[in-house]
Write a structure and sequence with these properties.
Chain B: It comes from Sulfoacidibacillus ferrooxidans. The complex is a heterodimer of chains A (494) and B (435). Chain A has 494 residues and is of the alpha+beta class. In chain A, 35% of the residues lie in helices and 19% in strands. Chain A has a 7-stranded antiparallel β-sheet with strand order 15-12-14-13-18-20-16, with helices on both faces. In chain A, strands 5-6-10-8-9 form a 5-stranded antiparallel β-sheet. A 4-stranded mixed β-sheet of chain A has the order 1-2-4-3. In chain B, helix 13 (205-217) crosses helix 25 (420-434). Chain B starts with 13 loop residues before the first helix and ends with a helix. Classes of the chains: A alpha+beta (494), B alpha/beta (435).
């Protein structure tokens, strides 16, 4: 089927040409999501508004063997919504309604395009909130959170997205509609909802999502602590957890990250010479929160803290949080491009791994800032690079991969919350055996038999291994030449 | 013209677009993206397109030009952007490029030249139009026209605007107000020069009178430079940077000569443009410095009152009021708390916050005329956000006032729409009755 035939069929399904983008130049803005190092132009973008429309579109594409992928706000950081195979992008942003809230049973039903933070805002009047809070929560969608099994600062105590989604209506890659999970209690049979969450849009498209909502805690205290040395901050993190306290959140920023965000609208005023800032939040019953706050302040003091403060006003607390949550976006203040990595390590290895990342930074000549969920051992090294310098993008990607290998070597993983996408697909080989990957491929084939739904993401294809290896060898050869020739003249050293 | 955006002098700035890291935080505050869900109509999308066009990888056709002109230039994206991308400046620069080589239709070009090049920049022509309009309103012509049904020929949005146009006063504030305030005794807070604007002084000269009374009441010396002209904001927004520069130069010279400590105004759009003259002259060796000096003196009326200190009115004004943040006050100038503080200083006045007070009302310069459909959608959202139990909606920009008035009229609602300074003026005037 040629392009215009496909477009007219898609338009017929949606009933309006306003809901299909298909001219080459209007697809340009859809070349990438929050991950910009690799790009691909989709064949078309469609904007369905109901489950039935999504199903009808998927049926059409399945029948015609046209590849497709779902997209939310496009804030993903591993390229999960990037069209590598000239896909039709099924944009879910117009499915943005809060369908139902059951305050007695603490459940809410949303469409996939509903914005994460909006849920908390809209149920705040009933003293309720939605716990998973990715940094991009003011813009990212709950459908996207489901696809990536997104995390966020408060996952330390409350768990990631999969702990908060109880049921979903899903359009399978064949176009059938299925209801997975159970609004109350556990679903019978295989945990298909568990399989769907975090499948990065490869097993189906959620069109109605039932989430657990929580009552706001009685009290919240937020602590900011500044450390001369990263090690002292890391040890503080370990000791807080060791003392039996589970903070709602425990976040760390290093010097470069603080410098970047302090240049933005979210200026806190970090001293220029401190190596690390910790943002710690405790919540719960008033007395417990007060006692834990005192205990945490004491632990900070035992670790040569430069200064430690407890937020006095909501405005101050909000500023501290904005400073942390906007840190990725603020990288534009210090670097034309950046790549955010998402490695997980055992918490006790924090000091060691941060030192290894510093070494990688020095040897590659690329600056690396660190902003991360210290309490979970979920690192976000932000690799600064300049895409206009030949091969620097590839170099940044290799640096990212090297860091992930360090994480795996100490017993961790290659992603905590951002997904594998296209960014880390080759690193999957480092983490899993061929047998393990085969099992994953087999599962995918059950749901996505034609491999039309977000192909080329998450699980590497066995047939492509040789190709991928050849390409990466080629890139590293280029890089070696590049590093040798530019040695000594690199302006990006630490 | 198919190649990059740098064909014309004053190309869009690489330094500005390369700052965007594509994080997407801007999406959910962008009014056009909220309505359409289309990345092309989002800040990050527009920056991506402008960049591609500037680099020559995307032809400079309607796929770039339409999104650039569909932008309200409300700057809400700048408020949230962690990287500090100056989307407003980029949009204005791109419009400048676009205007230099797109073919406008005959009518578009005629209207553009008529309003942006002939009428607004010329105080004399504006005065003649003001007189015509006043004649239209005070003679029976308006009634005859309204009764004749001729207005039905106008599109709905213009008809609604016609219905709510304020009465044109007998004379413009600029011509009526003395060049210098006579009051010198008790002047302790400094000297201000009042900027009267173009359209503002035709339809809202009462707000200028209120501004002057409030300034005098707060021990400011007021001058009204007679040679001043329109600030050029509408021209900048439309992409006519050449015309805007001519006008800005004139104002810079006139106001710097006045010797005032501050250049004070009460229209958010003009304030933002005048604070940003620096960008307009970023490549001008002579005027860049003068523009910087000029911009450093520009203050909104609410801002200056807070800065130099104001006296709390000694009267009571029993009203329930909600406040709408004009984009060019809140986002472009970061003035949010000052107007609210002034309102709270009035005893008896209850301020009730509306939802998303800083979302654009759709007025956006002449956007409501050039893009009536999107403007109407945003107007409806704004009206839906107004609390039901308020009597008055206050704001700091005449464009928003007309837009919201027209919306209330269309829905048959009877809230008052006022400039913040008018409420303060009323409270000061009531003081005499208290005494």
């Amino acid at each position: 089927m040629n392009h215009m035939q496909l477009v007219s069929k898609l338009t017929a399904v949606l009933g309006s040409n306003q809901r299909v983008l298909h001219k080459e130049n209007e697809l340009y803005a859809y070349e990438c999501d929050g991950y910009v190092a690799q790009r691909g132009r989709p064949r078309a973008v469609v904007f369905p508004e109901t489950t039935e429309e999504v199903a009808a579109i998927v049926q059409l594409l399945h029948r015609e063997k046209v590849p497709f992928l779902p997209r939310g706000a496009g804030t993903g950081l591993s390229g999960g919504a990037t069209a590598l195979n000239n896909e039709v992008v099924i944009s879910l942003v117009r499915m943005n309604q809060l369908l139902h809230v059951d305050y007695d049973n603490m459940r809410a039903v949303v469409q996939p395009g509903f914005i994460n933070l909006q849920l908390t805002k809209q149920i705040a009047k009933e003293n309720a909130y939605y716990a998973p809070d990715p940094s991009s929560q003011s813009a990212c969608t709950i459908g996207g959170n489901l696809a990536e099994n997104a995390g966020g600062s408060h996952c330390l105590k409350y768990g990631v997205t999969t702990n908060h989604i109880v049921a979903a209506k899903v359009v399978l890659p064949t176009g059938e509609i299925a209801e997975l999970g159970a609004t109350y209690g556990d679903a019978l049979g295989y945990d298909l909802l568990g399989l769907l969450i975090g499948s990065e849009g490869t097993l189906g498209i959620a069109t109605e999502i039932t989430v657990r909502i929580l009552r706001k805690p009685q009290a919240v205290k937020t602590i900011m602590a500044w450390f001369d040395r990263v090690d002292e901050a890391s040890d503080t993190v370990s000791q807080v957890i060791g003392a039996g306290i589970i903070p709602a959140a425990m976040e760390m920023m290093d010097q470069l990250a603080m410098q970047a965000v302090d240049k933005s609208n979210y200026h806190v005023g970090y001293p220029a010479d401190i190596e690390a800032a910790l943002l710690i939040e405790v919540d719960g019953l008033v007395e417990a929160v007060a006692a834990e706050t005192d205990q945490i302040v004491d632990i900070c003091k035992q670790h040569q803290v430069r200064a430690v403060r407890v937020a006095e006003t909501d405005a101050q607390r909000a500023l501290w949080w904005s400073s942390r949550k906007m840190a990725f976006g603020a990288m534009g203040r210090i670097s034309p491009n950046y790549l955010v990595q998402d490695g997980v390590i055992p918490r006790t290895k924090l000091t060691e791994v941060l030192a290894r990342i510093r070494e990688i930074s020095v040897s590659s000549g690329l600056r690396i800032a660190n902003v991360f969920h210290a309490g979970d051992g979920n690192l976000h090294p932000l690799i600064c690079y300049d895409a206009s310098i030949p091969f620097e993008t590839e170099k940044a990607m290799m640096v990212g991969s090297d860091i992930l290998k360090v994480c795996v070597d100490v017993g961790g993983s290659i992603t905590g919350e951002h997904g594998v996408g296209i960014e880390k697909i080759n690193d999957m080989h480092y983490l899993f055996t061929e047998a393990e990957l085969k099992a994953q491929i087999a599962v995918r084939a059950v749901f996505n038999p034609e491999d039309l739904c977000n192909s080329g993401k998450l699980i590497p294809k066995p047939g492509r291994c040789a190709e991928v290896k050849r390409a990466s060898t080629m890139i590293s050869q280029h890089l070696e030449t590049y590093i040798k020739t530019s040695h000594g003249s690199n302006s990006h050293s630490m | 013209m198919d190649q990059g955006l740098s064909l014309h002098s004053d190309p869009i700035s690489k330094d500005l677009y390369s700052v965007c890291v594509h994080c997407g935080f801007c999406l959910e505050v962008c009014p056009t993206y909220q309505q359409l869900g289309n990345e092309n109509e989002s800040p990050r999308g527009r920056v991506y397109l402008m960049k591609a066009a500037a680099e020559g990888t995307l032809p400079f056709d309607e796929s770039v030009i339409d999104p650039v002109f569909n932008c309200l230039d409300c700057r809400a994206c700048e408020t949230v952007c962690p990287s500090g991308v100056q989307v407003g400046t980029l949009i204005e620069e791109a419009r400048g490029q676009a205007l230099s080589h797109i073919k406008q239709s005959g009518l578009e070009k005629f209207l553009h030249d008529l309003f942006l090049r002939k009428i607004f920049p010329s105080p004399g022509r504006l005065q003649r139009i003001r007189k015509l309009l006043r004649f239209y309103q005070v003679s029976h012509v308006q009634q005859v026209v309204r009764r004749s049904g001729a207005l039905r020929l106008l599109p709905t949005h213009l008809r609604e605007m016609e219905a709510v146009l304020p009465s044109v006063s007998r004379a413009s504030a600029r011509s009526v107000l003395p060049k210098e305030s006579e009051q010198t005794k008790g002047v302790t807070k400094g000297r201000i020069a009042l900027f009267t604007g173009c359209v503002m002084d035709v339809f809202f000269s009462e707000i200028h009178m209120a501004t002057v009374r409030v300034a005098l009441r707060n021990h400011l010396h007021v001058s009204v430079p007679k040679d001043q002209i329109c600030c050029g904001a509408l021209q900048i927004h439309a992409g006519d940077r050449e015309q805007a520069r001519m006008m800005a130069k004139h104002n810079i010279d006139v106001f710097l000569q006045s010797g005032a400590d501050y250049i004070v105004l009460n229209a958010a759009g003009c304030g933002a443009a005048m604070k940003e003259y620096k960008e307009l002259f970023h490549d001008d060796p002579v005027y860049r410095e003068r523009a910087e000096l000029f911009s450093s003196k520009v203050r909104d009326i609410a801002e200056i009152l807070l800065e130099v200190g104001y006296e709390k009115p000694k009267s009571r004004l029993e009203r329930t009021v909600t406040y709408h943040d004009a984009c060019h006050l809140a986002h472009a100038q970061n003035i949010r708390s000052a107007p609210r503080e002034l309102l709270r200083a009035i005893d008896g006045l209850t301020l009730i916050e509306m939802n998303d007070a800083d979302r654009c009302c759709g007025s956006a310069g002449i956007y409501n005329i050039t893009h009536p459909e999107m403007a109407a959608q945003l107007r409806e959202r704004k009206l839906a956000d107004l609390p039901h139990n308020v009597e008055v909606v206050a704001m700091g920009n005449p464009g928003c006032m007309l837009q919201i008035k027209a919306g209330l009229y269309a829905q048959g609602l009877t809230m008052d729409v006022v400039h913040t300074v008018e409420l303060l003026d009323e409270a000061y005037r009531l003081e005499r009755e208290v005494q």
